[in-house]
């Protein structure tokens, strides 16, 4: 009950602050431009447009959704402490884990709303312009939207963990930018570099799998680029898709762990905090 | 009298600062207690300890049957708190804020919104909190603290930023709550205001409780002189009247007023002597030591003690 009251307030605030509007417009704008501009190289003949959209949009999501998630979550705890509102909230009959979980549900709802509506706009636009959308493509698209929300959840949880550990908002923002750069950009480059140097001598397939699972953005990428046969053709990943042992359930579990583990640690850190 | 708040031998250390040292007291139902002390004397720390916002380094606290340090919070439904420098989420209106806090306490929202009128927020309650002045935020802070007939009210500097009229309303409200059995603990610098209202005063200095009792008890303990001011007719400007005692400090104030510092038990005797001497005394004022003076006295005393 307390959790829902707090979640409702977070949503209310996000609507007031125009977070919801901004995130939805941003995602919708990018999804629409990718849908119409992105199909230029492939042309419109005989190609299942929505599959192309899934490939390009999921690559975009990897950059954008973690960024939005960290932006709304990094000051959830430390920011409220600095503003002094946490002091009053915690004098009410609520447990600290309820505060955290309530905020999580609220932020996740905002993110899910923005993603579904923003990306949904792309499908709507395709349907409106008369493109053929078969059920396989639609399934892959729905999975992309769902896993994007899950990716967002993981980064919201990571943002909370940072927020529960640091002393001021500036530090939280700095660490979150660093984490974003690391997980979204640097990790993959470093991984490629290591693989190229190693030439397959000491890094076995299972080590590589473990390395891919230990970054939520890679788990997300694999779900969307290899998970569906119709999409992996366009992603140039068809070969990989047939041989990889990282199946969708495994990848989803990894993303779920990336959400629950930081969230649990954040709750633990928050419960120990003095303010 | 049932106790609502029990603080036993509590100490709280922040790094190298001992914010509270060995404080013990029990607050009972219906008590209106003033917690006074300098900035940094440990008043806010004590309230935060009672709320479980921080944990004591040693000692134990019980508030409405809960141990706040262990994260128990069932009793907080009947607890109101107004922090020093209260702040709210700026994007919400006063009404939305009050409704949110009412839901957390499971109080009917309609009743909670009536409190906004009681503290005089009125039409401003439909505006966003970021447009509020300090006084208006303080009013909203009071309204949320009063939610749901609290049995314990912890008010940290509640009257700062309130205009005199609202101060009066505020004290009326908390006196009514105390009369109905609520424990009110309020910290303040406005000692003159508290003097008439607080049934009990706890004085803190550098984390140590230096005095605890009703104002009369503190006066007895402090043994500060009562000032007797007599308006005397027909007295030369530097002359002392013949009945002035030799063993108490006497001085002349502007023109024809004689002020005598009387030890508490000699008050009546001195008054007798003054009035028995004839008709020259035209008026008399008896000023017992004020809370300001008592406070200064106990602070001096605790500073001198090792």
TrEMBL record, chain A:
Keywords on record: Membrane, Transmembrane, Transmembrane helix
Record-annotated membrane-spanning stretches: 19-40, 52-72, 107-126, 138-166, 172-198, 219-240, 246-270
A cellular component term, taken from the record's GO annotations: plasma membrane
A GO molecular-function annotation: ABC-type transporter activity
UniProt xrefs under PANTHER family: ABC TRANSPORTER PERMEASE, ABC TRANSPORTER PERMEASE PROTEIN NOSY-RELATED
Protein name: Cu-processing system permease protein
Organism encoding this protein: Bradyrhizobium shewense
Origin organism lineage: Bacteria, Pseudomonadati, Pseudomonadota, Alphaproteobacteria, Hyphomicrobiales
TrEMBL record, chain B:
InterPro entries referenced in this protein's UniProt entry, alphabetically: AAA+_ATPase, ABC_transporter-like_ATP-bd, ABC_transporter-like_CS, ABC_Transporter_VariousFunc, P-loop_NTPase
Source taxon at top rank: Bacteria
SMART domains from the UniProt entry: AAA
An example molecular function term from Gene Ontology annotations: ATP hydrolysis activity
Keywords, alphabetical: ATP-binding, Nucleotide-binding, Transport
Signal peptide interval: none
Any Pfam family the entry gives: ABC_tran
Entry keyword ATP-binding: yes
Domain ABC transporter, residue spans: 5-231
Family: Belongs to the ABC transporter superfamily.
Summary of the function given for this chain in its UniProt record: Involved in beta-(1-->2)glucan export. Transmembrane domains (TMD) form a pore in the inner membrane and the ATP-binding domain (NBD) is responsible for energy generation.
Stated name of the protein: Cu-processing system ATP-binding protein
Organism: Bradyrhizobium shewense
Upper lineage: Bacteria, Pseudomonadati, Pseudomonadota, Alphaproteobacteria, Hyphomicrobiales
